[in-house]
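R.M. (postdoc): so does anyone remember the format we settled on? I'll just put the structure tokens first.
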């Protein structure tokens, strides 16, 4: 036997889940309707006190609108309804002579006041909408820019590799010459720039970090040993907070390499360079690279982490870099939820890499002062 047809009335009724959803969604409106109903009844019940429920109805409408900001159509309907609702008892009381005739003027006045609130609220909503649209545009522009950098760098890599292959063959056949050496040098530079650009462009990717726990002391000692053999400086391994750090070791190594490379590049022979790390709060660590090199001018400090930023515009090509090292450090720090800051006083600089995810092994130690510094 086929199942009985549902009754027409129950078929039109919203399913219980949907009804519950509607009640939850319009809970405030329903509460407001109940509040208005009670006040409306009070206007009739106590005509001498009608001013209080009258204002309560309009104030509650204003409060509700501040929270909801309905579209213009429904807002207009609600205002007209409230005007009629509050106008009827007042008019009735005026007609019975229990209230003076001027009382009726309160209705359009309250409607005008509410109109002003509507105007301000709509302006605010519109401003928010514009800000959201701009943020979305900016985000998409940034994404396109990253994609462009990535694609362009990727495309450049092949011709650079081919050109280098040909030059190396030329060196093999006819021996090295000044011109060939310069060309090979420049290609190496371009290759390094492409590598850094690709790394920067991938910093926004979700799989940029492959994190794991690393032993802070072992990790930093290893980096320090590698660098101390590279350049003749007064290398110092400072206090290293014992513990484990949850990071991407390859990315962190790249960041510290960039900082140590700068410390070497912008200091002279026998200048001091120190690597140290201390706990900062219960789960943060600050790794510092301190050098006693030339320092950074105060006016350059602010934009030093920008891409292609150079503190000294008059720097020669012999000085090396293109200004991507610190942008990479900054990106890596931020992706880890940390930040890199710099202080400098003209007799050296301190780059501090603050990172979360640190679990101290023992009592944390505070960093001792190597040199007085100012931001
Ligand atoms: N330890 C430092 N001492 C003095 N100046 C520094 C130091 N580190 C960075 N700077 C200044 O900040 C600028 C930006 O550094 P960044 O590492 O981003 O670029 P770069 O070293 O010029 O080039 P790249 O690292 O891409 O090879 C440098 O050009 C330099 O002027
Ligand atoms: Mg650099």
């Amino acid at each position: 036997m086929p199942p009985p047809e549902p009754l027409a009335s129950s078929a039109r009724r919203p399913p219980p889940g949907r009804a519950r959803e509607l009640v939850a969604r319009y809970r405030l409106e329903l509460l407001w309707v109940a509040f208005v109903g009670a006040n409306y009844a009070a206007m009739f019940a106590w005509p001498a006190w009608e001013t209080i429920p009258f204002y309560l109805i309009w104030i509650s409408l204003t409060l509700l609108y501040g929270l909801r900001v309905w579209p213009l159509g429904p807002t207009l309907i609600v205002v007209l309804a409230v005007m009629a609702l509050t106008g009827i008892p007042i008019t009735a009381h005026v007609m019975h002579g229990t209230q003076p005739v001027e009382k009726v003027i309160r209705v359009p006045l309250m409607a005008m006041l509410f109109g002003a609130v509507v105007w301000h609220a709509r302006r605010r909503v519109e401003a928010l909408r514009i800000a959201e649209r701009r943020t979305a545009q900016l985000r998409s522009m940034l994404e396109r820019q990253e994609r462009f950098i990535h694609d362009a760098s990727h495309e450049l890599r092949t011709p650079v590799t081919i050109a280098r292959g040909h030059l190396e063959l030329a060196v093999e056949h006819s021996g090295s010459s000044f011109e060939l050496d310069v060309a090979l040098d420049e290609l190496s530079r371009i290759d390094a720039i492409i590598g850094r650009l690709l790394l920067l462009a991938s910093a926004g990717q979700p799989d940029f970090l492959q994190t794991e726990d690393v032993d802070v002391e072992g990790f930093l000692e290893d980096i320090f040993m590698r660098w101390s053999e590279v350049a003749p400086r007064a290398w110092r391994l400072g206090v290293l907070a014992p513990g484990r750090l949850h990071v991407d070791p390859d990315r962190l190594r790249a960041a510290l390499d960039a900082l140590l490379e700068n410390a070497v590049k912008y200091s002279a022979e026998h200048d001091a360079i120190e690597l140290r790390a201390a706990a900062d709060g219960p789960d943060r660590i600050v790794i510092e690279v301190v050098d006693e090199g030339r320092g950074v001018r105060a006016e350059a400090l602010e934009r030093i982490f920008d891409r292609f930023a150079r503190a000294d515009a008059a720097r020669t090509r012999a000085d090396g870099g293109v200004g991507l090292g610190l942008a990479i450090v900054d990106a890596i720090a931020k992706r880890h939820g940390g930040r890199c800051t710099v202080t400098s006083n003209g007799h050296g600089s301190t780059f501090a890499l603050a990172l979360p995810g640190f679990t101290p092994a023992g009592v944390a130690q505070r960093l001792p002062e190597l040199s007085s510094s100012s931001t």
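R.M.: ...and that's the designed sequence above, right after the tokens. Also worth knowing: Residues 209-360 form a domain with the Heat Shock Protein 90 fold (CATH 3.30.565.10). Residues 258, 261-262, 321, 325 surround magnesium ion (ligand 2) (CB under 6 Å).
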